[in-house]
Amino acid sequence: MKLEVLGTGCAKCKTLFENVQKALASAGKEAELVKVEDIATIMKYGVMSTPALVKDGKVLFSGRLATPDEIAGML
Amino acid sequence: MFKQFADYLTFSLMGLVPGSRVGEALNFFIYDTLKIFFLLIVMIYLIGLVRVSLPVERVRAYLAGKHRLVGYFLGSVFGAITPFCSCSSIPVFLGFISAGIPVGMTMAFLLTSPLINEIAVILLLSLVGWKITLLYILIGLGVGIIGGLFLDAIKAERLLQGFARKVYEEGQHAHLETVEKKRITMMDRHHFAKRELAEVFGRIWIWVIIGVGVGAGLHGFVPDTWFETHLGAGQWWSVPVATLIGIPLYSNATAVIPVMESLIVKGLPLGTTLAFCMSTVAASIPEFVMLKQVMQWRLLAIVFVMLLTAFTVVGWALNAFS
To answer: Which ipTM score applies to this complex?
Structure first.
């Protein structure tokens, strides 16, 4: 599974990245996790409000944060 | 209720003398902070319940293909009511122009957004009354609309960065797929509003304290007629100076509005005060550095000068008529 955190580098995006890490750790799952800051790539997903979480090329949510528990539930 | 509590805390518990500088400043600080916190918590939650159905994607679908004149107005209004964090400015900008929305209309949205939002309106209503609130909203919308019109009139899209111009040109033929409507239950609304409350409040509480703190300082330590004497409406230069001072003071509406209240109370003319506050909120250097990713320097400079001119003219007009 490949996870991408989309964000232009604001505080919320960093928090989301950390929450995804926590979610993976608590669920005991392995995934390739990357942070995407490049605006062109973000645009390709059609995301306008950051931060956003993408799983295997599919946008799970955008424009908000999510708690580690919530993220674990989605994975 | 808040007044009694603030009086009790400062004058009874801490034993400060009513009428003394420190006493009055602290009393004012506690009263204002409590009142604002209370209002914010209630209102952010209530607005969150409604706002769950207005994501920025739907605004874009709505604006695309709107007649220009209507579009500037709506762009401005949506900028005021749509939630988005300033770090999303660039994705929103590109998202809008990729849907064929003109640069000016997009900028109307982006310019109004920091100036008018629910937090600014709540603070204004509770601190300076409905008349100045209404004036503030009208000016904010006006600056967005006229700024947008102007940018399209000078064909601002020529001055975008290369890749952004390409996005814009491709956008002229874009067909947007319609945004599907999801059913939203009351429970969804509650969760959204709760999350929004935690997030927004967590971000702005410190700004409220800073803003009210500076306001309280002015309240307690600046003599009542100081501004009137030194920066009254007669001194025409005070408006552009206030606008210029506002630029490096990067702040948001949350922190500025409590300061604004104190400035007005201390006799700073309304036009000068509004010019100062709006330039602090709308013309910020970090925001412009961000826009540099999609705009050439020349366009940035034009937007900048445009905002400063607008705020100065509005300030003069208000001082002349009030």
So the answer is: 0.73
